[in-house]
Amino acid sequence: MSSNSLHSADLLPILGGSSTAEAGGCGSSAAAVPPVSRRLPPWLRQNLGAGGGHGETAGLIAELDLETVCSSAKCPNRLECWSAGTATFMILGNVCTRPCGFCSVPKGKTEELEADEPERVAEAARRLGLGHVVITSVTRDDLPDGGADHFRRTVEAVRQATGATIEVLVPDFIGKEGALERLLEARPEVFNHNTETVPRLYREVRGRKSVYRWTLQLLADAKRIMPEVKTKSGLMLGLGETRAELLDVFADLLDQGVDFLTLGQYLQPSLESLPVFRYVPPEEFDELGDLARSMGFAKVASGPLVRSSYHAREMAEA
C-alpha cells in the first residue's frame, strides 16, 4: 500500500465540510452519519425515454434465462446500455455469499451451477452482435474454486461464438488457491476487480470477509501471471471517503500495475443498504479523473453515473 499517511488536516470530505465528524474522520463509519436526502440532485436524474431497443435486449435475456448485473444491481444505466444492445452478464447464479452493505444482489442459499450457462451467455452475445463482452458474477465462497472454472468456460464459449474481446469483473477468490490461474487460462483482454472504497470503510462497505490488501494482491497477481492483460478497478464515491484517502488508493492501485480506473457515485439501491453520505458533483468527478490521469492511469472514466462496465468497450480499445 502507499506509504502516504493521513493527517488530521486531510480528513475532509472531497468538497469541504464543517467538522471532522461530518467528514467521516478516523473512527467513523459510513453508517454512523445521518444520510443525505433521498431526493437525487439534478445531475443524477435521467430522462429514460422510450428506450429504443432495450425491450429486445431484455426479451433475449429472459428467453435465454440469463442474469445481468444491470438488473440485479439496479444499474442506473441499464436502459441506455440495453437500448444500445449491450449488457453485463452475471454468471454463477443470482444469490451471493457476501453481505456487502452497498449491493442489492440477493444474499442467502446459493444455487446449483448451470452447466449450459456458458453456452447461453455466448448465444446472447452472438445474437446481440457484441464486439466487447463483460462477464461478472456473484461471489461464491461455497464453491471450491469460487467459480473460476465456470468463468473460464464462459469466456471461452463467448470468444468462440463471437470473436469478441472479453472483460471479466471478478470476485476476490479469497482462500481459493489456483482459482485466478485457472480463470486466466481463458486469457481475457481485461481483468477487472473493484476496490469499491477506501481501506477505512472496507469492513463497513464490503463486509468482514473482504480485505483491502487482498484486493491489491489479486490485481497484482493477475498482471504477474498474464502481463499483457489490462487490469482495471473501480471505486464508489459518496460513502464518507476523503480526498487524501482516495489519492492513497489511486497510488496503491498504480503500484500494482493497474491500467484503468472507474469512479462513480454510490446510489443506495434499497432501504436496507448503506445510506449515501454525500452526492459528489460532476465537477469534482472531472477533477478527480484528471488527477488520476496525471498520476499515471492509462484510462479513467469518472462521473456520477459511471459504473465498472459503463462504456467498457471504449475504455478497452487501444
Q: What structural class do helix, strand and pairing data support?
A: alpha/beta
Percent range of helical residues? 25-40%
Shape: globular
State the end-to-end distance. Answer: 28 Å
Strand order of the largest sheet: 1-2-3-4-5-6-7-8
| Cα-based radius of gyration, to the nearest Å | 19 Å
Total strand segments: 8
Order of helices and strands: HHEHHEHEHEHEHHEHEHEH
Alpha plus pi helix count:
12
Low-pLDDT parts are 1-33, 48-53
**What profile does the largest beta sheet have?**
8 strands, mixed
Mean of residue pLDDT values: 81
Sheet-strand content, in percent, reads: 5-15%
Overview of this structure, please?
The chain has helices at 20-23, 54-63, 69-72, 78-83, 117-128, 148-162, 179-184, 202-206, 212-225, 243-255, 282-295, 312-316, and strands spanning 67-68, 88-91, 132-137, 165-169, 190-192, 230-237, 260-265, 299-302. The two termini are 28 Å apart. It is an alpha/beta fold and 318 residues long. Helix 5 (117-128) packs parallel to helix 6 (148-162). Helices cover 34% and strands 12% of the residues.
Quickly describe the structure.
By secondary structure, the chain is α/β, with parallel strands linked by helices. It has twelve helices and eight strands.
